[in-house]
Amino acid sequence: MCLSYHFCYSNLSAKFNLNTMKTFKSLTLICIAFFTLLTSCKKDKKQPNCKIITVNMGAQNFVINYDEQNRIASVVSGSTTRTYVYTGSTITITETNGGSFSKRKIVTVGANNMPVNLREEQNTAGTLWMNSAFEYNGTELSRLTQTGSGGTAPAVVTYTWANGNPVSASSGSTTNVIAVDASKPAQAGDFSWFSAFYHEWITVLKPKNLITSIAGSTFTYTFDSDNKISSLISGGTTVSYNYTCN
Asked: Which neighbouring-strand residues pair with 97?
C-alpha cells in the first residue's frame, strides 16, 4: 500500500505513462484543482459556461457526467466507474471495476469550502485506509499530513506560495520547485485540473495561473479558438479534451 500520495504515484504513472512521472511522486496533491472555464465571447453577450465532458489519453477514454448543479456525478472509463454523492459537507466517491468495489473516498469540506480531511478506504470494511488532513492559510494549502492503517510514521508536506500560486512543496530534506505562466490563468484542462481528474476531483489546491513545470518536468498546452485548453502535453504523451458549452 502506498502511504503518501506525494511519494507514491504508481497508479497515475502507470496510466499516464510519462517519463516525467517519476518526478511527480512527491507532488501528487500539489496540482489538484478544478475550475469551470468561461470562454471569451463578443461584447454584450453572455459568456458560455463550458465544461470538459471527455478526456482522451492514448487508448484510454473517460466520459464525465454532471448533475443539475454542474457537480461531477460520475466518471466512466471502460468497466471502471466513479460515482459521487454529496451530503451536506461530505462527499463520498465510490469506484467500481466491473461492478465490484475498488475503493471509496470520504471527503469532509471545511468552512473555507476546501477539503479539510480525506479518508480513502481500500476495502469494503474500511479497515485498509489512508487519511489526508489539510491545513490552509485562507484557501492556500499550507500543510498536508497523511497517515495510514499500516501504522507507519505520518508523511508531512509543506507548501509555500507567492502571488496566488504555489512555488514549492517540501517534505523532509526534499523541496520541489513549481513554475507557472503568470500571463495565463489556471483553467480546466491544465495540469492542476488533470491531477484532480486522476484523484477523484478533490480540490485541495487552487493556483492562480497555469502550472508549467514541477521539479524540472514541463507541461505545454494547446488552445482552441476560444482559448480553452484543447490538449496537455508532457514527455511523449498528449491528453486531449472535448467540451460542452451552454
From this structure: 80, 100
